[in-house]
Specification:
This is ATP-binding cassette domain-containing protein. By secondary structure, this protein is α+β, with helices and mostly antiparallel strands. The protein contains 9 helices and 23 strands. The chain folds into 2 domains: 222 residues, P-loop containing nucleotide triphosphate hydrolases (Rossmann fold, 3-Layer(aba) Sandwich), CATH 3.40.50.300; 117 residues, RNA polymerase II/Efflux pump adaptor protein, barrel-sandwich hybrid domain (OB fold (Dihydrolipoamide Acetyltransferase, E2P), Beta Barrel). Strands 7-8-9-3-10-11 form a 6-stranded mixed β-sheet, with helices on both faces. A 6-stranded mixed β-sheet has the order 14-13-12-16-23-15, with helices on one face. Strands 2-1-4-5-6 form a 5-stranded antiparallel β-sheet, with helices on one face. β19 and β20 form a beta hairpin. Bound molecules: adenosine-5'-triphosphate (ATP). Adenosine-5'-triphosphate binds next to α1.
Length: 354
């Protein structure tokens, strides 16, 4: 069932897009700067009127403009669309709890109902212990999780995410990403991101936007595995290992179906269940000899291809990829058929249920 249906032309930005998002689905918009991603969000949110086009959400027409003439225009506040941006944008003079109660109260729900909804979301995103604090006393990651609760307490028909992790420091990102991963399973969402890891972990489908047009779209694993656009090729190649989570004491590990044992940053994994490990090719170091020392994952591999990838050189070994500098590639003398060791720090690997 389609939830969001958007078709629009914005002449002065040279944007012509058509997108559909199914109910409950998360669509990631990827693309270079100035491609038109934020324009798509603004069109859906009711912050931008197209020269031509329609926006419908759950069958309700929100925007209908034909040849510059507006037939239907539902204002932003009445669209049931919530936006989460880089900054948490909480009301500074209200407590965390009051911030989360704000949406349900504005929709006319009683104080008691609003309190119950807010409590549920504070619990779900794991910030209930911060309920009486003021936003100014929160860390960036805590504030962003409160912002997630605040957005969802209003029960939006559509959630728009505009690079929600871009302003966080690296240490805060995994917890916010995990919070989003859990809540996005239930909402219809369009997410703008520059980070392919977000797309891989959070999105069901990916649309690549370039020059104001959707140049490629499809299921996330397909686009990342077999990109057809220039930008798609640049972002592809993320390492993704599927397997089973084991926890026999120690910190636990993923035993991949392809044989590797992988240690990483794990959240909420149950031993014996299916899991996936994800890490970037740039996080992989390549050695001509076995490497020792924790906390690293080391895989003995045979190089299958060596090709330029922007300023770096991508070394592929079967289903794994490493991006190294041209100098490092030259020093290693890597070529197809060579035996090398790929090494990635456990801190660079995200492990999730799949
Ligand atoms: N407020 C605006 N008024 C006029 N033109 C704009 C405005 N905002 C963006 N544009 C133009 O519209 C086009 C699309 O920009 P948009 O911000 O949607 O891209 P983006 O993909 O979100 O980029 P980024 O990743 O840098 O945020 C660009 O040519 C940009 O210059």
């Amino acid at each position: 069932m389609t939830s969001l249906s958007l078709s629009a032309r914005v002449t002065d930005r040279d944007v012509v897009v058509e997108l559909e998002v199914a109910a409950g689905e998360t669509l990631a918009l990827l693309g270079p700067n100035g491609a038109g991603k934020s324009t798509v969000l603004a069109l859906a949110a009711g912050l931008l009127r197209p020269d031509d086009g329609t926006v419908a959400l759950d069958g309700r027409v929100l925007t209908d403009v034909r040849d510059g003439r507006t037939q239907t225009w539902v204002p932003a506040y009445d669209r049931h669309v919530a936006t989460l941006s880089q900054e948490a944008l909480l009301l500074p003079h209200l407590s965390v709890r009051a911030n989360v109660e704000f949406g349900p109260r504005a929709q006319g729900r009683s104080r008691r109902e609003a309190r119950a909804v807010a409590q549920e979301w504070l619990d779900r995103v794991g910030v209930a212990d911060l309920a009486e604090r003021r936003p100014g006393s929160l860390s960036g990651g805590q504030a962003q999780r409160v912002a997630v609760a605040r957005a969802l307490a209003a029960e939006p028909a559509l959630l728009l995410l505009d690079e929600p992790m871009a302003a966080l420091d690296a240490a805060a990102t995994p917890a916010v990403r995990e919070t989003l991963r859990q809540v996005l399973a239930e909402v219809t969402c369009v997410m703008v991101t520059h980070d392919v890891l977000d797309a891989a972990l959070l999105a069901d489908r990916v649309a690549v936007v370039e020059g104001g047009r959707v140049v490629e779209q499809g299921a996330t694993p397909d686009v990342l595995a077999r990109p057809r656009s220039v930008f798609g090729a640049r972002i592809a190649g993320l390492n993704l290992l599927r397997g089973t989570w084991r926890h026999d004491g120690g910190s636990g590990e993923l035993v991949a179906t392809t044989g590797e044992r992988v240690h990483g940053q794990a959240e909420d994994l149950t031993p014996g269940t299916a899991a996936v490990a994800v890490f970037r090719p740039t996080a992989v170091s390549v050695y001509a000899h076995p490497v020792h020392g924790s906390p690293r994952n080391t895989f003995e591999v045979v190089v299958t291809s060596v090709e330029p990838n922007g300023d770096l050189v991508r070394i592929r070994a079967g289903h794994l990829a490493a991006d190294v500098t041209a100098q490092a590639a030259a020093e290693l003398g890597v070529r197809p058929g060579a035996r090398v060791w790929f090494s990635v720090k456990a801190t660079e690997v995200s492990l999730h249920a799949s």
